[in-house]
Amino acid sequence: MAKKVCDFCLSEGKGLFSGFEKLADGHYMCRDCKSVIQKYDLSLKYDLFQCLVTAQTNMKDMIMDAYLENNNADETFAKFFPMPPILLHGGERCINVNKASITVDKDSIPQTKAVQAIVDVAKNTIHNVFDATTDNKETVYGTLYETDAALYFLSENFVNCHRLGYMERNNSNDDKIIVSTPTKKFTYSVDHSDLFYLRERFYQKVNAAKHNKRQHLIYMTNDNKVTITPGVYEIPRSLRPGKYKVKAIKDAGLHIKDQLGRVRDYYENEDLIDLSDGGQLECTGEYQLQWIGENPEE
Fold first, then answer.
1. Cα dihedral 269→197→65→13 (10° resolution)
2. Helices 73-80 & 60-69 angle (0-180, nearest 10)
3. In terms of Cα–Cα distance, which of 215, 226, 289, 223 is closest to 256?
4. Rg (CA), the chain
5. Please, what sign has the CA dihedral across residues 101, 253, 210, 275?
6. pLDDT 10s digits, 129-153
7. In angstroms, rounded to a whole number, what is the distance separating the alpha carbons of residues 279 and 9?
8. Is 298 a residue whose pLDDT tops 60?
9. DSSP per-residue string spanning 43-109
10. The pTM is what?
11. 88 and 95 in contact (C-beta within 8 Å)?
12. What is d(CA 130, CA 272) in angstroms, rounded to the nearest whole number?
């Protein structure tokens, strides 16, 4: 008799009480994967994000890439990134919608009501109320919306709006979305920020696939400065290894994958990126790179 195999983590069932469950779609799920999927409030079925949250870290990108090789980009957008229940600005596409809270100085909360739809967010309706700096503070609850244009926090009395490049994507918090600008910090408490960033990562891949990311170009400015457009750049085939200063022209995603398959995202308030031999640089925006040497002090 063939052993049951979990279709998510690929572990084999052992004994009569292995805890394997057959889903309505015919796939098998072990007890551990069921627990993880339920923790993320995902439905118990075999689908992309159920596979991603149960996969090992170094397998997640491969799973996303394999999905895109077998599915149409427009259909993938429609399935995983539908329009939210509020109106957006024209041309904006929604990536994430999360209940969130932020603790701010009580005196900084406006007494008037804020706009309640992204379409109404404009320069004169943005408050950007930041993290509390005094003991007279209050936790404000609202909704965090990430679109391909900005990150919005909409609450009853104020609206915050942030450039995507100020989000800290390389931290170990799994319950916070942190935005750091040159002068202010905004800390949003959410459930499962790792899933938030997985969705963002997949959105960038779908968008790149839709626009033929492998048809990329490198524009040479001089020996040490280049401009890259959406594409996958192998190191050292396309770019020489070393440290680079980065200037975002269109900050829509820059990801560094080392030769072990580990992925690190660049965000706009970083000074440098390090491209190691044997790795890849995946670009879904447009960036200017300036090579400064093997070590920052060179």
1. 140
2. 120
3. 289
4. 21
5. negative
6. 999 999 999 999 999 999 988 999 9
7. 26
8. no
9. -SS--HHHHHHHS-GGGHHHHHHHHHHSS-HHHHHHHHSPPPSS---TT--EEEEEEEEEEEEGGGS
10. 0.78
11. no
12. 26
* CA–centroid distance for 20 within its chain: 31
Tokens 């001089």 found at: 222
- Asked if 35 contacts 44 with a C-beta cutoff of 8 angstroms, the reply is no
The amino acid occupying position 3 is K
Q: Which residue has the tokens 């979305």?
A: 177
| φ and ψ of 49, to 5 deg | -75, -25
Over residues 48-82, the pLDDT tens digits come to 999 999 999 888 888 998 999 899 999 999 999 99
Q: Is the pLDDT of residue 212 over 50?
A: yes
Exposure string of 8-30, with b = 16+ CB inside 10 Å and e = fewer, is bbeeebeeeebebeeeeeebbbb
